[in-house]
Amino acid sequence: MAGRRERKKAATRQALAAAARELFLARGFDGVTVAEIADAADTAVSTLFAHFPGGKEALVLGDSREREQALVAAVRERRGGVLDALRDFLRTRGPFESNPAPQARRIAALVVATPALRRYARALWTDCEDALVAVIAEETSREADLSLRLLARYILEIPDLAGVEPDPAAALDAAFTHLRRGWPELAG
After folding, report:
1. Does 63-186 carry CATH code 1.10.357.10?
2. Which among 54, 83, 90, 179 has most CB atoms closer than 10 A?
3. 73 dihedral zone (left: phi>0; alpha: psi -120 to 50; beta)
4. Structure confidence by residue, pLDDT tens digits, 158-179
5. pLDDT in tens, 98-109
6. What CA–CA distance (Å, rounded) separates 168 from 95?
7. Is the dihedral of CA 160, 161, 162, 165 positive or negative?
8. Element holding 148 (H helix, E strand)
9. pLDDT score, position 71
10. What whole-number distance in Å separates Cα of residue 136 and Cα of residue 85?
11. Exposed e or buried b for every residue in 116-152, given b needs 16+ CB within 10 A?
12. Does residue 64 have a pLDDT over 90?
């Protein structure tokens, strides 16, 4: 069980993120300042940056640690092929979710429509490249070579590319169809 200090930190992070989401959805990402978010969460701007060093973008999208851990877990805990596991994992994220909560749908639309958020989201995904290469190599007893680096990079670019298509889920599936052709041994 977390101690009082950890619970207070978590509550502050949650209050900041909730205030940011509410303000961003009401007025748009660019129409809100960090000072307004801190004020809405009853904290100081310095507290906001202590919890979210990535600034406004991190309030919406977090940091790459969670993504990296989730990607690694998707590969390690898979039942079938690596590519199927990663496709299934991405289906649970942002614009690929089949039945998202209304606020999640609005947040995904905000990210797609806001250039700063799209850039940040893309960077969060591509920051996971080394970890994804390492876990695929480990789990498949392969060399962490250029082929796996290409595969990881392609996979990590899918959210940015397919997420803005008219039918993101279909674009996700199309992307993995192409990846299966290039890496059939990782398909299933």
Report:
1. yes
2. 90
3. alpha
4. 999 999 999 999 999 999 999 9
5. 898 999 999 999
6. 6
7. positive
8. helix 146-162
9. 96
10. 11
11. ebbebbbebbbebbebbbebbbeeeeeeeeeebbebb
12. no
Contact predicate 99/169, CB 8 Å? no
Rounded to whole angstroms, the Cα distance separating 136 from 83 reads 10
d(CA 7, CA 13): 10
Length of the chain counted residue by residue: 188
Model confidence pLDDT, tens digit, residues 20-52:
999 999 999 999 999 999 999 999 999 999 999
- The one-letter amino acid code at 125 reads W
Alpha-carbon separation of residue 85 from 57, 77, 78, 107, 122 (angstroms):
28, 8, 6, 25, 20
Domain locations in the chain as residue ranges: 4-54, 63-186
| Nearest-angstrom CA–CA distance, 16 and 35 | 11
3-state secondary structure of 145: coil
Query: How many C-beta atoms lie closer than 10 Å to residue 32's C-beta?
Result: 20
Q: Which long-range contacts (CB under 8 A, 24 or more apart) does 173-180 make?
A: 173/87, 176/83, 176/84, 176/86, 176/87, 179/83, 179/151, 179/154, 179/155, 180/83
CA gap 32, 19 in Å, rounded: 11
